Write a sequence for this structure.
């Protein structure tokens, strides 16, 4: 071996985060670098750990519902839907059709809001500053609908076990329809800005490839899995809350790179709008609350219920001992499981791409750490 | 398993025993104290029975969800067979449930999904405190962080795990929060004092 000279580079270990604008929260990534090349990473998480599962064991079923909004606070409505469905499964009740339709509308609007925040921040990370202003402008309209419906914009607690607490407000359908008509041209506008933009394509194509087999091996779900070419969406595979009534497509990618994940999410926003349009045209009349006792005491047993959250499969595993509090409440968070694949995606790539890949995974640290 | 499920408190009478009593109409029937499961029958069950025989003690369905209970030593072989021969190629989750009064204190739960079959099953094992189950990383890479979280929260060490450290809590933290004896307000006060410079986090 030749003698080492001062030009020989040794492995450099640097810390990215936990306070870093492009880690989307308090994620700390320890990067092992060989010049510009990433040799390996280690994620340090838990800075936002609040012990949500422990809290769940010490609250009644209804009391715990608002806590789930604080995990993935960008998609609080989805979290609430998953939790309500899980408890309803244990109680063996179903929300009435009217409640289900309103749930679908709000959940899909929330998916749009979540994807918009992802798009804005992802583009910002990569250096395109304009989209974030546009995206937040459109997201604002969704949040206004939430606010009009239940009074809260972010941590909505929109649903209750067994159905809904609130009837829709006057002009709800009109407002949702107006939003859909107004929103689709906006998606086209983002695509005009980004899809064929040379810098955008250059930064995303071929970056952070995760193949379908790797996705399955790591348990990665959601748009990341679909971008790898697997046409799998829980709304189609195991429909819940009446999703089987609506027509929509599952967009997929081919290469499983960052660019495909971008196109998949863009198309998902259009498909969500399509679902909302169908749902709002046929909201059934009738009650909004199922037959749920005032004191929720599910029979002894356990159930795992999962939904397609904007980030992937969000599951709740609840063990009941026939008391008013869950004996054990486990949340299967999509962000936590997806983040595990980060190392596989950045290894061998450039340090500048790490930021793009964290952005494309679309994680929310509130959900990773719980 | 039936009696082990709820060790605390007097065991409530089973509905079958309560029914013949004369007062059956006077009081509403008490809910059963155990999980009312039905047997699970499918080709999966048959294949697994052929493969593992007595190592799997129960095949059940509850609320339409299928699960099996296996001896802890056989769990990894079962996951492997399920993955290679029955297409259960997606490990959804690993978690544990603590029953402090039971001799085999923990339920270890593996949730699996098959894309090809569009089917979800749970593999459960019961393990005593201090038992080191084999890691599932050899079968599913996703098990890495999931097992670290189980260790972090319950103190269950996985044998052969490549990186058996805490994941959400600080590495020096004492105690396992999701064990039942760990109070809701309890903290590692020494750690909080030393690292945060405050008397208590509460």
């Amino acid at each position: 071996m030749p003698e080492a000279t001062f030009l020989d580079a040794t492995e450099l270990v640097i810390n990215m985060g936990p306070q870093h604008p492009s880690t989307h929260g308090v994620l700390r990534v320890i990067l092992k670098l060989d010049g510009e090349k990433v040799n390996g990473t280690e994620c340090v998480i838990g800075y936002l750990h609040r012990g949500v599962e422990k809290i769940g064991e010490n609250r009644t079923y209804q009391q715990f519902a608002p806590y789930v909004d604080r995990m993935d606070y960008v998609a609080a409505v989805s979290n609430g839907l998953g939790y309500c469905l899980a408890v309803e499964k244990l109680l063996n009740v179903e929300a009435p059709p009217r409640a289900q339709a309103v749930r679908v509308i709000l959940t899909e609007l929330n998916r749009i809001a979540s994807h918009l925040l992802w798009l804005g921040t992802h583009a910002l990370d990569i250096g395109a500053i304009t989209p974030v202003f546009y995206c937040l402008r459109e997201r604002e309209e969704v949040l206004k609908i939430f606010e009009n419906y239940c009074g809260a914009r972010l941590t909505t607690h929109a649903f209750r076990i067994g159905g809904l607490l609130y009837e829709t407000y006057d002009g709800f359908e009109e407002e949702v329809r107006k939003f859909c008509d107004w929103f689709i041209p906006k998606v086209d506008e983002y695509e005009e800005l980004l899809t064929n933009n040379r810098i955008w394509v250059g930064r995303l194509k071929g970056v952070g490839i995760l193949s379908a087999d790797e996705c399955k091996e790591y348990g990665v779900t959601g748009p990341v899995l679909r971008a790898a070419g697997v046409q799998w969406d829980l709304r189609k595979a195991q429909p819940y809350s009446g999703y089987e009534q609506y027509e929509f497509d599952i967009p997929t990618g081919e290469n499983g790179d960052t660019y495909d994940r971008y196109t998949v999410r863009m198309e998902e926003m259009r498909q969500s709008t399509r679902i909302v349009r169908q749902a709002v045209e046929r909201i059934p009349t009738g009650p909004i609350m199922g037959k749920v006792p005032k004191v929720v005491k599910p029979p002894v047993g356990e159930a795992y219920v999962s939904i397609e959250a904007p980030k992937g499969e969000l599951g709740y595993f609840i063990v009941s001992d026939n008391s008013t509090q869950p004996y054990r409440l486990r949340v299967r968070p999509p962000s936590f499981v997806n983040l595990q694949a980060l190392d596989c995606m950045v290894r061998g790539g450039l340090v500048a791409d790490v930021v793009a890949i964290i952005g494309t995974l679309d994680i929310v640290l509130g959900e990773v750490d719980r | 398993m039936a009696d082990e499920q709820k060790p605390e408190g007097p065991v409530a009478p089973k509905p079958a025993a309560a029914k013949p009593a004369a007062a059956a109409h006077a009081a509403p029937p008490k809910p059963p104290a155990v999980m009312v499961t039905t047997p699970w029958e499918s080709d999966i069950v048959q294949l697994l029975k052929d493969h593992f025989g007595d190592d799997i003690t129960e095949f059940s369905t509850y609320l339409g969800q299928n699960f099996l209970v296996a001896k802890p030593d056989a769990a990894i072989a079962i996951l492997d067979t399920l993955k290679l021969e029955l297409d259960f190629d997606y490990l959804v989750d690993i978690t544990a449930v603590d029953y402090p009064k039971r001799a085999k204190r923990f339920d270890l739960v593996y949730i699996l999904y098959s894309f090809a079959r569009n089917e979800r099953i749970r593999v459960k094992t019961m393990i005593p405190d201090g038992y080191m189950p084999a890691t599932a990383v050899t079968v599913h890479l996703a098990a890495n962080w999931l097992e670290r979280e189980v260790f972090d929260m319950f103190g269950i060490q996985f044998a052969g795990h490549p990186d058996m450290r805490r994941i959400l809590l600080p590495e020096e933290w004492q105690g396992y929060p999701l064990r039942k004896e760990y109070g809701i307000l309890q903290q590692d006060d020494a750690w909080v004092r030393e690292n945060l410079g405050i008397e208590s986090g509460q």
The beta strands of chain A are 12-16, 28-34, 37-44, 159-160, 163-164, 301-309, 312-320, 328-332. The first strand of chain A starts at residue 12 and ends at 16. The interface with chain B takes residues 45-46, 49, 51, 53-55, 57-58, 89-90, 92, 216-219, 230, 232, 237-238, 297, 299-304, 306, 313, 315, 317, 319, 321-322, 327-328, 330, 332, 336-337, 340, 369-370 of chain A (CB under 8 Å).
